[in-house]
Amino acid sequence: MIIAVDGPAASGKGTIARAIARHYGLPYLDTGLLYRAVGLQVLRTGGDPSDPDAALAACAFTDPLLADEQLRSEAAGAAASVVSAHPAVRAALIERQRAFAGQPGGAVLDGRDIGTVIAPHAAAKLFVKAAPAVRARRRHDEIVARGLEISYDRVLADIRERDKRDMLRDHAPLTQAADADLLDTTFMDIEAAVDRALALVEARIRAAAND
Ligand code: CDP
Known about the structure:
binds cytidine-5'-diphosphate
């Protein structure tokens, strides 16, 4: 059973996807980490994330990078959003994601194009969204909790810029799959969002079993 969770930055998709994986005892992949690793690798080698050749070369990163603390930084997130627009980068990362999704028993993946490109036949798909101001507030709280200083306005501007890049790119843009369930978490705390997500997934699984 594959479960796809897509949505924009700080929508709650990661927390929701992890909770779903725990609930069903499935392995979980945060696909954003792969793009963040490519972005961080480009920055560390002094390259420009908007250069397709530099970004493609960075796809050969080694696994230990996936555990690097710096992957969570805003710089890595911004670089990820730039490298992820290159079709060659998306192609280079596709097999790894499909192999993870295709393991026996299934998996939960979160990202931007899981329900549309990576696992179009997923048993359940969620598209998690929230108003930009609410997502900026959550992301700002996360950053401050890590002991870093940044203004709320700067976080909001970054989120808007990233949304625009992710939604408007030509290849695998962030968009809700036709058969995905929409979950708007603007007015939900995380517990309510997880409960609702699990109910939506359960309904999909029940419907498939009755087919
Ligand atoms: O949680 P947040 O949205 O801040 O970041 P993320 O999920 O780690 O993704 C970082 C960036 O990678 C996004 O802005 C996307 O541009 C890109 N990404 C993508 O293009 N496709 C995916 N499946 C996952 C992430």
